[in-house]
Amino acid sequence: MTDWHKKIKNYLGEGTYECTLDDKVFKKAVKELNEDPKQRALQIEALRQWVIQQPHLRNTRTDDIFLLRFLRHAKFSQLKAQKTLDNFWTVRTVEGKGAPEWFKNMDPKDPKNEEILDIGMQVPLPGRDDNGRKVILVRTGGYDPYKHDFGFTLKTGFMMNDILLLDEENQVHGFVILLDFSEFGVAHATNWNREIIGKAMKCWQDVYPTRNKGVHYYNTPTLFNALMEIFRFFMKDKMKNRTKFHWASLESLHKDIPKRMLPDYLGGEAGTLEDLKKSWKAEVMANREELLLNGKYSVDESKRPSDDGTLGLQGSFRKLAVD
């Protein structure tokens, strides 16, 4: 059991949430996310009641700590939280509306999943950057495209999201993605077609309740230029303004990602990539129950209310509270 879980009483409880944020981070949540400790329990309950009332979502989670991450991501707008939460379960389970093949069997002890974890294609870097954000290193060419199914490499990335969102500080500070293209070649590029890129971008931008604060590209080859145009097509304007290319310059990279967080092969001080991979795998295994838990839930598309353009979404609880 991780330190995070030890802080929580009644892990899947309803009406049992106790804030674990320190004063500094909590003040940020109040300022940037509109979090109000006096109304938080009521806001969680409002979202829970909405979920209960949706016939297609009745087999989904309603515990406090799960719902709260969607409220924080939505800056406590019920409407936005409802939409993201619906997307979260729909994309994971409904054929034709998402990518359920990427979310089936997220057991880290499954041999195929464990093999990708051993490769360490996605690794959260230790500590936080100067703004408190968690930085995730993604080695875009870190797998064998002739041996490994590309979907499995994406799956371990989503497993990472599920685990990192357990930490309340990550919910508040957000994430920075560092894409390292040092090992990326033509064979990898053939895996990244328009359909896959579109699905991956939807999951990243519209499905997970993550505050995506920046994307850094390092050592991008010329062949990536065409792919970048596809990425930009699916990328929201806000994210377009949060991307930065460092080309092959470690000096440029170190201005944005502290050396203390980076592995030694990127001129950093956080140790070897191999050690970081082993440490992260151990963290994933320690949180296996969370991954298995999410795999138990699904959307019943046959019971979804008629599409009136809002997917049955209700108004903002914040506005209702003021009124």
Can you describe what's shown?
With 323 residues, the chain is α/β, with parallel strands linked by helices. It has two domains: 3-100 and 296-322, no CATH class; 109-289, 3-Layer(aba) Sandwich (Phosphatidylinositol Transfer Protein Sec14p). The protein is built from 16 helices and five strands. The chain has helices at 3-6, 23-33, 40-53, 64-73, 78-93, 111-119, 150-164, 168-173, 186-189, 194-207, 224-234, 237-240, 250-256, 273-286, 288-294, 317-322, and strands spanning 122-124, 134-139, 175-180, 212-218, 243-247. It has a five-stranded mixed sheet. Helix 10 packs across helix 11. Mean pLDDT is 91; it is low at 4-10 and 308-323. GO terms for molecular function: phosphatidylinositol bisphosphate binding.
